[in-house]
């Protein structure tokens, strides 16, 4: 939804990649005979490493290819059989086996982390690790470096894009960092000098020192080693508390919480354990539990000032969560300032529930009557990838190509997959909200964990993402303010994107009754019509623009459905001759618009063409909005307002609203009250329509109507921007 689908533009790249895949498939099962000598591979890798660093600094465009999906390993390590590099067959997943490998080079990070590895027969191969932490979260060299011993489960051996042979690991749980004491490590790889076994205390001190240097991952290893040594109950508690902080720093909130002892802190809980538990709960968005722990902390340690700060934050989140009352001014200010624009606010789920629909899988329904403008959801992103839009400069965009599924997306999706995979891997307690989202026919593994590690299927994540991702601007307010600078009906698509797990249950309809807006990574969904209890909420995946049925259905191909709303049904029933007639009229309209001068447009011609276009529709506009009409009709309203032709401008406003499916009364200069009887389709430009009505009524002294028109403008503004506290600063008065 609103992401850059560039499948057509990168058609050739897609085709090339498909060919590469097909060629590779032909070699399936082969054992390569043309391995390069070890030294040559080493030299080639090191040269690429140096040259790559320079090139990557210059390049702003990266591309990422998704291989044919394969399942993660679910077999416990103890049941896997060891193989060697020379045993490997091309384009094969070596099920039931594992490789023990040692890195022989420093790592190189492009889309994946690459490193040369050897086995104990001294054979060498390239290893590509995907979905690992980004550099700013964890240095590449901390993940793998010369001498690191790794175990790759059920290795996938293939021909890489460069034509060389390599191992590709897409699932995080398919690669294990081997403990230095692991009996599987061959003697030749063990340190020559016998390492003195350190005590729990010394290892804890080492961990503390790593923490001091900001080496949190290393600290976790040291604390974990420390915990494997004999220690008293008290020592264990201290080590775990320390490790809990390291887990917090590395966003492993489940583990951080578990190390605090939560939910039972014992009869004498420590200040640190309580505080860390509260922090972990806050990040896991379990605000009421966080609040309770902080209350306990405040009772036991009343002088802890930091706890009070977090307590106040948790209290605000609890209130947002239960009431839907947000300080929207603050949210707007935060979205303007914060980069990435990821805001610290809770999710409010309004009067809605998930239910089964007849033909569209699950959907979101209102549980009580709501009015146009009412808040249905204000949702914090589950995962959000921020990409600076090109006009903000310095944008680093990735092209994500899935040759199997025939799709190419430009933007943050490839980052988003990594962000989601990391979140699910490190915080399995939050995974269900994501993994239960729509994923078509993809069959995921049912085993949640193996060898104590969560199993996260990267291809399931990719599949869920592609069905549920939303493109998002920094804020809808910024887009709204720039609207005048853009061509009026230009579709919007964004590089930044995210997953909102509640909003994901909303199905598409061209005759939508809800609208989403963004403030940073908060999505605000409001009703665009008065809705009866039990009504299914729908919004636009793509804004309908009145183009042909084929074009509009093409837009839904990637979601694998055909829209059968009233607009699409009408388009299906419309005869080809009528469509051709509309096309002709639109071309003439374009010529009239193109020939307009600063002194104006030939309004009589536009009126005539609009009338002719209007006559091509048969069903009432409130059932089938007349999407080709509203834009030129609004143009007329603008012109008449500028000419101070009040009668005509009110008429044009009324007709614009009618074209959008509204039923209104009093859109004229009589003394009748102006009123929306039924709301139609809501879009940014509607604010302008109501403001023209306000100006026209004002000009004839129809104050009440003018106030009512302003009220409608504000409701519309609230719907498309997400809030109305900024209305005055945007539109004055
Ligand atoms: C973001 S999900 C929406 C929730 C989904 N219905 C579910 O069961 O989780 C998108 C998927 O919903 C279905 N869908 C959405 N709008 C639809 C429509 N108008 N008609 C049929 N299916 C639709 C399609 O399968 C689409 O890929």
From TrEMBL:
InterPro entries: Gramillin-biosynth_MTr, SET_dom, SET_dom_sf, TPR-like_helical_dom_sf. It comes from the Eukaryota. SMART domains: SET (SM00317). Pfam families: SET. Residues 350-542 form the SET domain. This is SET domain-containing protein. It comes from Mytilinidion resinicola.
């Amino acid at each position: 939804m609103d992401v850059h689908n560039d499948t057509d533009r990168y058609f050739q790249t897609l085709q090339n990649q498909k060919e590469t895949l097909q060629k590779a498939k032909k070699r399936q099962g082969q054992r390569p005979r043309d391995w390069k000598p070890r030294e040559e591979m080493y030299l080639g890798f090191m040269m690429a490493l140096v040259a790559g660093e320079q090139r990557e600094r210059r390049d702003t465009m990266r591309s990422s290819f998704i291989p044919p999906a394969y399942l993660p390993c679910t077999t416990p390590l103890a049941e896997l059989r060891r193989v060697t590099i020379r045993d490997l067959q091309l384009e094969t997943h070596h099920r039931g086996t594992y490789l023990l490998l040692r890195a022989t080079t420093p790592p190189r990070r492009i889309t994946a982390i690459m490193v040369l590895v050897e086995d104990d027969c001294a054979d060498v191969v390239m290893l590509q690790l995907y979905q690992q932490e980004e550099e700013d979260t964890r240095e590449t060299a901390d993940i793998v470096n010369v001498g690191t011993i790794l175990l790759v489960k059920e290795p996938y051996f293939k021909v890489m894009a460069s034509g060389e042979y390599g191992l590709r690991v897409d699932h995080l749980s398919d690669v294990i960092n081997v403990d230095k004491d692991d009996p599987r490590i061959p003697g030749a790889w063990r340190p020559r000098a016998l390492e003195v076994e350190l005590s729990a205390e010394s290892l804890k001190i080492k961990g503390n020192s790593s923490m001091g240097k900001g080496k949190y991952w290393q600290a976790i290893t040291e604390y974990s080693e420390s915990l494997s040594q004999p220690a008293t109950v008290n020592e264990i508690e201290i080590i775990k508390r320390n490790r809990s902080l390291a887990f917090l720093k590395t966003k492993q909130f489940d583990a951080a919480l578990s190390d605090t002892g939560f939910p039972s802190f014992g009869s004498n809980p420590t200040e640190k354990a309580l505080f860390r538990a509260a922090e972990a709960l806050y990040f896991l968005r379990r605000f009421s539990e966080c609040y309770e722990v902080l209350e306990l902390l405040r009772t036991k340690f009343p002088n802890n000032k930091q706890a009070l700060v977090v307590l106040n934050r948790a209290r605000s989140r609890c209130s947002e969560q239960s009431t839907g009352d947000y300080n929207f001014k603050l949210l707007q200010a935060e979205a303007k300032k914060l980069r990435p624009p990821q805001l610290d606010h809770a999710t409010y789920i309004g009067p809605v529930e998930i239910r089964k629909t007849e033909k569209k899988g699950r959907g979101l329904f209102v549980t009580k009557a709501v009015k146009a403008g009412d808040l249905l959801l204000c949702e914090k992103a589950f995962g959000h990838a921020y990409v600076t839009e090109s006009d903000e400069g310095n944008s680093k965009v990735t092209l994500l190509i899935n040759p199997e599924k025939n799709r190419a997306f430009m933007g943050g999706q490839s980052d988003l997959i990594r962000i989601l995979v990391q979140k699910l891997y490190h915080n399995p307690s939050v995974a269900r909200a994501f993994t239960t989202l729509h994923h078509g026919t993809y069959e995921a593994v049912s085993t949640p964990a193996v060898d104590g590690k969560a199993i996260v299927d990267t291809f399931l994540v990719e599949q869920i993402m592609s069905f549920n991702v939303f493109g998002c601007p920094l804020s809808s307010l910024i887009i709204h303010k720039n609207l005048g600078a853009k061509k009026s009906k230009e579709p919007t698509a964004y590089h930044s994107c995210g997953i909102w797990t509640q909003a994901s249950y909303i199905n598409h309809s061209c005759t939508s009754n809800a609208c989403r807006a963004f403030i940073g990574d908060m999505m605000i969904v409001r009703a665009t019509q008065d809705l009866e209890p039990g009504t299914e909420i729908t919004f636009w995946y793509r804004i309908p623009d009145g183009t042909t049925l084929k074009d509009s259905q093409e837009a839904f191909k990637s979601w694998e459905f055909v829209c059968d709303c009233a607009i699409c049904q009408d388009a299906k029933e419309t005869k080809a001759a009528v469509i051709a007639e509309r096309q002709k009229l639109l071309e003439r309209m374009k010529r009239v618009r193109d020939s307009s001068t600063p002194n104006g447009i030939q309004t009589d011609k536009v009126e005539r063409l609009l009338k002719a276009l209007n006559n091509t529709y048969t069903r009432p506009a409130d059932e089938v909005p007349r999407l080709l009409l509203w834009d030129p009709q609004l143009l007329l309203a603008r012109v008449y307002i500028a000419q101070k032709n009040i009668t005509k401008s009110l008429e044009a406003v009324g007709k614009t609203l009618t074209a959008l499916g509204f039923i209104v009364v009093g859109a004229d200069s009589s003394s009748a009250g102006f009123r929306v009887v039924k709301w139609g389709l809501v879009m940014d430009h509607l604010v302008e329509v109501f403001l023209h009505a306000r100006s026209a009524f004002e000009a004839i002294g129809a104050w009440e109507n003018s106030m009512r028109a302003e009220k409608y403008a504000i409701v519309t503004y609230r719907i498309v921007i997400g809030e109305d506290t900024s209305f005055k600063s945007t539109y004055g008065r």
